[in-house]
Input
Amino acid sequence: MARIGPARNCWEVNEERVSLLRPRPAPRRVQVPARPQDLELDLARTACVVVDMQNDFCSPGGWLDSAGVDVSAARAPVGPLRSLLPPLRSQQVPVVWCNWGNRPDRANLPPGVLHVYDREGSGTGIGELLPGKASRVLQRGEWSTRLVEGLSVEEEDLWVDKYRMSGFFDTELDSILRNLDVTTLLFAGVNLDQCVFHTLADAACLGYDVVLLEDCCATTSPYFCVEATLHNVATCYGFVAAGEHLLARLDKAHAVVAT
Output
C-alpha cells in the first residue's frame, strides 16, 4: 500500500483498495502544572506555535527599535525557547513559526490595518523602507521578518507568514494544523498581549485546546497588559503554564498502550 497525504493525515492506497483509516500514533502523556488547573497533555497531538520572534520586533535596528521602543523585553523568550524547542522536537511535537511577512504590494491589507502602523501616513509603516535601513518593514523575504538572533528554523519545522494580529486570519495555519492532526496548541512569542493573544483566542474559537507558555512570551507593552492577558487566558480561553515546567517533565512522557 502506498501513502497519499501528510504523514499524520494520509490514506493508504493500491490499485484495488483505498483505506481511509488514518495512522494515529499512540497518545504520549505528560503532566504539567498549570492554571486554572493542572494539565495532562497528549504530545502526539500537540504543536508549539511561536509568534513574531522576528527582527522588526525583537532586534536592535528593527522597526520597533527605530521607533524608540525598548526591544530588550521582546528578547526574553529567546533563552527559554532555545531550551524548550529541541526537546519538543525530539518528542515529535511540531514547531510552527508564525511571523509577520506581508506581500510586497500589500494588496491584501485594508486601510484599517495599514493605519495602525502609520497613523499620520508619513511612510513609516508596513512595507516602507525607513531612513537608513536596508529592510522593508514587516515584508516577507526581508531581514525584518527573519527570526531574531539566537533562534533558528530546523528542517522539520513549519513556517507561516501572517498579515494581521492573528496568525489564523487569511493564512494557511489552520489547514496545516488540521493536517498535523493536532488538537492542543502551546503558544509562545511576542507581543503577548497583541499577536500572541489574538492568535490564541482565534485558536480557541476554532476548537483547539490552548496553553500559553508564559515564560516563553514577552511584550513591549506595560506590565498591566501582561497581567490582563494572563488573567483572560486562564479565565476565558484555556490554560497558562510555564515552559520550564513542561521541559522538566518531558523526559517523563510515556506512550499509552491500548488494552
